[in-house]
């Protein structure tokens, strides 16, 4: 009996050790959890001065940490944490390249925010379009070995456009296998290379429902901005494009005399294009929680009309606005989630307290 007890004890100890090893062993994935809601006045200076108004605009973020067994188990009991595979987060990139790409996204977002804010405030601004930042090159691209992440594409077949849409449309309707020549900049030096177009998969974008042709890169705009009033923006370690809307609000209110915030604690998220349209982002439920922890009472969420086709691709099969609204209702009832399609929608709400009419029925 004594010997049998020893054997059982050994077996239990082995399983305990295996369990402990699994708990601390790194997994091939990341944990996404609520990040911070950072006051943008600390990042933006106009005419050498930070915003000193009592109201505040916050950029919200999602915190990424390498997963292990213990944190993975936490996602099963904590509704504000989720697990994602490394491939889904990093897209096959190293952490160094991933961080570089997020920085490119942020610089593009800031340039767009400056253009929208200064023009809306009737302040002089000049934008020089340099070309396209290359954020990744697909394995199926014929340019896989000749174009690198961080390159700026300046022309295709000798054509230079003033925005990325021009480049996309030039290539979109070409047949697969058409030879094209690409001019690019790498570390300030000019280069040129040629390759064939490929057929790109379809996406939830309605403009090309059957897919389109391209050269197999993920891109964002590289724009140099010159303004009449000196502006300095330092986002610190925050990367990605999703702070575009909130940066635009911070800049615009600062330029026009801090009349919009009205002592409110305002958070939100969404990309911003040069025409003032707000785009969807990832992890909005976690950003609502970050806003709650920062004491926000207003949260701007990107709005698109939900359709059955779009909802197939959406996170938790809900649009950004639907997911933010439902998260706030359940976990942050003190926050009012405001749907916005454009920068002007956000301005209208801050001025009047009224929400632009939206239809949230699935089509």
From TrEMBL:
PDZ domain segment(s): 127-192
Report whether Oxidoreductase shows up as a keyword of the record.
no
Note the superkingdom of the native organism. Answer: Bacteria
An example of a GO molecular function for this protein is:
ATP-dependent peptidase activity
Q: Residue limits of the Lon proteolytic domain? A: 240-302
A single GO BP term for this record reads: proteolysis
The name of this protein is PDZ domain-containing protein
């Amino acid at each position: 009996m004594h010997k049998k007890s020893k054997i059982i004890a050994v077996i239990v100890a082995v399983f305990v050790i295996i369990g402990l090893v699994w708990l601390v062993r790194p997994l091939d994935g990341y944990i996404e959890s609520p990040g911070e809601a950072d006051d943008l006045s600390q990042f933006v200076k106009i005419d050498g001065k930070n915003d000193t108004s009592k109201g505040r605009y916050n950029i919200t973020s999602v915190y990424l940490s390498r997963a292990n067994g213990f944190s993975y188990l936490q996602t099963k009991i904590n509704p504000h944490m989720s697990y994602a595979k490394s491939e889904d987060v990093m897209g096959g990139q190293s952490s160094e390249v991933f961080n570089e790409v997020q920085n490119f996204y942020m610089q593009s977002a800031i340039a767009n925010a400056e253009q929208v804010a200064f023009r809306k405030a009737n302040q002089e601004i000049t934008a020089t379009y340099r070309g396209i930042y290359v954020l990744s090159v697909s394995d199926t691209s014929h340019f896989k070995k000749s174009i690198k992440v961080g390159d700026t594409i300046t022309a295709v077949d000798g054509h230079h456009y003033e925005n990325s849409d021009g480049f996309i449309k030039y290539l979109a309707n070409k047949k697969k296998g058409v030879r094209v020549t690409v001019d690019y900049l790498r570390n300030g030096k000019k280069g040129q290379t040629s390759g064939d177009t490929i057929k790109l998969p379809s996406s939830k974008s309605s403009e090309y429902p059957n897919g389109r042709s391209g050269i197999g890169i993920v891109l964002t705009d590289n724009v140099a901005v010159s303004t009449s009033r000196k502006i300095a923006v330092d986002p610190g370690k925050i990367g990605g494009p999703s702070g575009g809307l909130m940066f635009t609000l911070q800049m615009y209110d600062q330029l026009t005399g801090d009349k919009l915030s009205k002592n409110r604690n305002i958070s939100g998220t969404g990309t911003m294009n040069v025409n003032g349209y707000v785009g969807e982002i990832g992890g909005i439920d976690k950003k609502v929680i970050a806003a709650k922890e920062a004491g926000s009472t207003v949260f701007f969420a990107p709005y698109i009309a939900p359709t059955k086709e779009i909802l197939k691709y959406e996170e938790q099969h809900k649009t950004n606005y639907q997911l933010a609204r439902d998260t706030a209702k359940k976990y942050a009832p003190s926050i009012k989630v405001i749907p916005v399609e454009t920068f002007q929608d956000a301005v209208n709400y801050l001025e009047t307290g009224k929400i632009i009419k939206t239809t949230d029925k699935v089509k």
